[in-house]
Amino acid sequence: MALVVQKYGGSSLESAERIRAVAERIVATKKAGNEVVVVCSAMGDTTDELLDLAEQVNPVPPAREMDMLLTAGERISNALVAMAISSFGAEAQSFTGSQAGVLTTERHGNARIVDVTPGRVREALDNDKICIVAGFQGVNKDSRDVTTLGRGGSDTTAVALAAALDADVCEIYSDVDGVYTADPRIVPDAQKLEKLCFEEMLELAACGSKILVLRSVEYARAFNVPMRVRSSYSNDPGTLVAGSLEDIPVEEAVLTGVSTDNSEAKITILGVQDTPGEAAKVFRALADAEINIDMVLQNISSVEDNTTDITFTCPRNDGPRALELLSKLQDEGRWADVLYDDQIGKVSLVGAGMKSHPGVTAEFSEALRDQNINIEMFTTSEIRITAVVREHDLANAARALHDKFRLGGDEVATVYAGTGR
Amino acid sequence: MALVVQKYGGSSLESAERIRAVAERIVATKKAGNEVVVVCSAMGDTTDELLDLAEQVNPVPPAREMDMLLTAGERISNALVAMAISSFGAEAQSFTGSQAGVLTTERHGNARIVDVTPGRVREALDNDKICIVAGFQGVNKDSRDVTTLGRGGSDTTAVALAAALDADVCEIYSDVDGVYTADPRIVPDAQKLEKLCFEEMLELAACGSKILVLRSVEYARAFNVPMRVRSSYSNDPGTLVAGSLEDIPVEEAVLTGVSTDNSEAKITILGVQDTPGEAAKVFRALADAEINIDMVLQNISSVEDNTTDITFTCPRNDGPRALELLSKLQDEGRWADVLYDDQIGKVSLVGAGMKSHPGVTAEFSEALRDQNINIEMFTTSEIRITAVVREHDLANAARALHDKFRLGGDEVATVYAGTGR
Question: For domain B3-175, is the CATH number 3.40.1160.10?
Fold first, then answer.
C-alpha cells in the first residue's frame, strides 16, 4: 500500500463537472489500494476575483485580513471535492490548513512552513478515509491566525504534507501533462520528459518554467519527496521529478530543456566607484525595498577613473520602483547614471549533461549568432547557461537552441485544453 | 462608553460599494465613543451560489462538508469589511466563529450555541480595536469541526455575542428600517413601530414576520439583550425590541401589528379514533420525519362513532412528504381519510394590548366577515389571534384587520431599495 499525495490546481477544479472528474480519479487511486491525501487550490479564478474585491474595498488591505479572505477560496474547493468523493461512494474528510497541522511563520501573505503536524490527517487515513487538505494556507503557531504561503503555495502544502506523512509520491495535477523540453506554445516539437532530477527542475523553475513553484521543488529536494507532474485531463503518467544530480551516472546525463522568461527588466548603474561596499549599498537598498534581484553582472573596472558598471535583472513589476530608488541614490552623487530596459527576455539551457558536454557554451552562442540574435548578458551555473536577449528575439532564440541541441521529437507536442495559464 | 454589537445582513453587503458604506457606519459608531463588535452575513447571494454548486457536485452532500463550504461565505465578507474599516483609518480585526469562541452542538447544518467564550474578542476591544466576527458559524467543542447555525444564524451569533460580552444593544441591520405594523408591500399605510417587547416580537416572528429570526429573539429574551432593527441604507433609529410583556403597564399596552404567512399547508385527518394515544401516533410519525407542525386543531368527537378530525399546518415544502407518511399509516387502517390543502394563508393580529381590549376576537371576525372572507381555522394565544383563510384572501384580510384596529398612519410606508427579500 502506497501513500499518495495529490495536488489539484485551480484549472483542474474550475467547474462542478471538473470537480467530479477529479473526485473520480481520487476514488480510483484509493480503490487501487493506496492511502490518498489530496491538496486543492481554489477553483478557477476565485483567488483573482477575491483579490479584485479586496482592491475595490481597500487598495492597501491589511495583510492579516487578506489572508482571511483568500483562504476562503481553498475551503470552498476543499469541501466541494469532499462532497463529490462522497457521491462516488468513498469516504472523505476535509481539513483546513490549521486542522491539518500546517504551522507557519507569522508573515501574512508570504508565510513559510515551519512544521507540519498532521496528526488528525494520519488518524483519518488510519480510519480508511480520503483526506482533503486546503492548500496555500496554514496557521501561525503563536497568534493562531490564519496565514497564506504566497502564490502557488498549494504545491508547497502538498510537498510539505508528503514529507511529514512520509508519502511515496507527491503528484501535482494541472492542465499540463508533464515537464517539457521547452514551452510547447513557443517550440512546437517540444518533448515531454520522463524524468529529471531536483536540481534540473530547480534551474528550470528559476529560469521561467511555470510548471512547478520553485519553493515546492526546494522543499521536495530537502526532504527527498518524489514529485510527479501530471494532467488532470489525461491518464498520461507525466514527468517524475526525483533524485539528485550527483546520483546521475555521467553516461545517462542529458540536456533537459530550454526555458524562457520575459517577466524581468534590466537595470544598469554606470560609473560606480570600484571600492569595497559600493555594490553592497545598491543591493541593500533594493533588499530593504523587498525587490528580488535575479542575475547580477559586474565587469572589471575602467583603468582611467577606477569606476565600474553593475547590471542586474529584477521582476518587471518592481522595475519602476527600483529605478526610482536608485535615481534617488544617484542624486546623492553616488554614481554617473542609471539605465532601465524592460524589453528584455531570458533564455536558458538546462541539463545535467552539460557537465559532460564540452563546448556547450560555444554551441549555445553559435546557435544565437546563426539567428543574428545579440547576447546582452551571459551567465552560467554548473548545469545551466542563460543569455539575456531582446524580448522580440526570445521565441526565436528558444527554437534555435532547442534545434541545436536536438531536444525536439518528430511529433508536435500535445497541449491540453486550457493551457493558457 | 457603550458596547454595541451590529449585525449586517447579506443585502447590506452585496457589493464593494455597500461594504464601504457599512464600514463608514461602523467607524462612525466607534468614533462616537462606543466599543463595536460587528457580525457579518455572507455577501448578497453567496450562500445560494454555494448551495447551488454543492447540489451540482453531490445532491446529498455530507453535512460536515456542507458546513465547511458555507462558512467560507462569512469569512469573505468578514475580511472585506475589516479591510474597508482599515481604509477609513480605524483598526479592525476579524474573527472566525471558532476564534470568537462560539461553541456549538455537533449537529452540522443546524447546530445550537452551547457557550460563547469571547476572550480574544474582549482582548481586541481592550486594545481599542473594532471586532468583526463571522456570523452563522461556530465550532463543535469536542470534534473541533466547523458547524453552522442554520439559515438566519448570523442574527443568533450577534445576540449570543452581545449576551456574552454584556453589550448595551444588539443592532440588526438589513434593508428594512424597522418592524412595521404590517408588511408594507401588502398594507401600504403600515407604520414603523418605535418599540415592542420580546413576546410581541416572538409572536410576530412565529406568524410570518421575516424581519428577525425566531431563535435570535428567543435568545435575546432569555439573556435580556435589547435588539434594535435598523436599515443600513438610512440613519433612522429603527425599532427597539426590548423588555418583557409583564413590565408593560396596562394603559400603555397597544396592538402591535398584523402579520401574514403563506408558506404553510394544511392537512386534515378524518375519522381518527378518539382514544388516548391516537393523536400522539400522528405527531410522533411527523416528528421522526423532522417535519415541524405549527397550528393544531382537534374538535370534539362525533357522537355516533367516537371518531374525531385532526387538522394541522406545516411548512408547505414538507407537505408532500407529510402527506405520503400519513397515507401510509392510513393504509394500516388507522383512519378514514387524509385531506391536503396548500392554498391557505395565515393572518395574525399581535399585541400586548389584547389583554386589555375586550372584544378583540369579535372585532377580528367581523373585519373578515365584512370582506366576505371565510375563517377556516382559528387559534389564539395571550397576545395573538390567528386565522387561516384562502391564500388569495390573505392580503385583503391583512388590510381589513389593519384598518379595523386603526394600526395605520396617514403616510404610505417608506420601503427602501432592495426590499424584495
Answer: yes
In CATH, what number does B246-409 get? 3.30.2130.10
pTM as predicted:
0.82
Q: What ranges do the domains of chain B cover?
A: 3-175, 246-409
Q: What is the pLDDT of residues A144-190, one digit of tens each?
A: 889 999 878 999 999 999 999 999 999 999 988 999 999 999 999 99
Tell whether A40 lies on the interface with B, counting CB pairs under 8 A: no
A28 touching B, CB under 8 A? no
Of A61, A71, A79, the CB nearest to B86: A61
pLDDT tens string A239-286: 999 999 888 888 778 899 999 999 999 999 988 887 888 888 888 888
Q: Are A126 and A146 contacting, i.e. CB atoms less than 8 angstroms apart?
A: no
Cβ contacts (< 8 Å) between A78 and chain B: which residues? 68
Q: How many Cα atoms sit within 13 Å of B365 on the Cβ side?
A: 9
Give the chain B residue nearest A96 (alpha carbons).
B68
- How many whole angstroms separate alpha carbon B308 and alpha carbon B216? 38
CB contact at 8 A, B138 and B111 = yes
Closest by Cβ to A19, choosing from B50, B57, B75? B57
Q: Which segments of B are annotated as binding site for substrate? A: 47, 74
Residue type, A22: V
Report d(CA A115, CA B322) in Å as an integer: 53
Across the interface, whether the CB atoms of B68 and A57 are under 8 A apart is answered no
Using DSSP bridges, classify how beta strands B337-341 and B3-8 pair: parallel, antiparallel or unpaired.
unpaired
Whether the CB of A66 is below 8 Å from some CB of chain B: the reply is yes
Q: How far apart are CA A9 and CA A171, in angstroms?
A: 11
